[in-house]
């Protein structure tokens, strides 16, 4: 028997995020991860959800002045992803349920991953970007 997973990617807007997340939760989907990628004009966020062997990705771009609503009122486990993305990429995420106030990691410099450039399969990071460890 061959089991095939089904993966769909949906490009959305920031304003679509919360209604779509509520709908997924109501259908029984679980949060898998939230991914951030730094771009020259905007950060790209991808929220991944799973249900059985199905995967659904919600993707949108957010500029440096835009804010993103937290999905933690729906999926509280997303608090760590959202804190990391805010701290490392500088994305403005509002009303995170468990807010570590910029202290997830002890990093050298402000929002270090916002300075990372992605070209093809190679990621280049400035030498001054050092993750020193987690705060307890």
Task: Write structural notes for this entry.
This protein has a 4-stranded mixed beta sheet with strand order 1-4-3-2. A two-stranded parallel ribbon has the order 5-6. Strands 7-10 form a two-stranded antiparallel ribbon. Strand 5, helix 2 (about 80-90) and strand 6 (about 90-95) form a beta-alpha-beta unit. The chain has a single domain (about 5-135), classed as Beta Polymerase, domain 2, CATH 3.30.460.80. The protein has helices at about 15-25, 80-90; strands at about 5-10, 30-35, 45-50, 55-60, 65-70, 90-95, 105, 115-120, 120-125, 130-135. It is built from 2 helices and 10 strands; from the N terminus they run E-H-E-E-E-E-H-E-E-E-E-E.
Structure at a glance:
The protein has two helices and ten strands. By secondary structure, it is α/β, with parallel strands linked by helices. It has a four-stranded mixed beta sheet. A two-stranded parallel sheet has the order 5-6.
């Amino acid at each position: 028997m061959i089991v095939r997973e089904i993966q769909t990617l949906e490009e959305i807007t920031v304003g679509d995020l919360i209604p779509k997340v509520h709908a997924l939760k109501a259908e029984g989907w679980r949060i898998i991860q939230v991914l951030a990628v730094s771009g020259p004009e905007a950060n790209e966020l991808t929220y991944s959800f799973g249900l059985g062997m199905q995967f659904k990705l919600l993707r949108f771009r957010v500029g440096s002045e835009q804010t993103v609503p937290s999905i933690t009122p729906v999926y509280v486990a997303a608090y760590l992803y959202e804190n990391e993305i805010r701290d490392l990429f500088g994305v403005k995420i509002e009303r995170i349920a468990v807010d570590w106030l910029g202290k997830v990691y002890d990093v050298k410099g402000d929002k270090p991953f916002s300075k990372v450039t992605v070209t093809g399969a190679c990621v280049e990071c400035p030498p001054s970007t050092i993750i020193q460890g987690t705060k307890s």
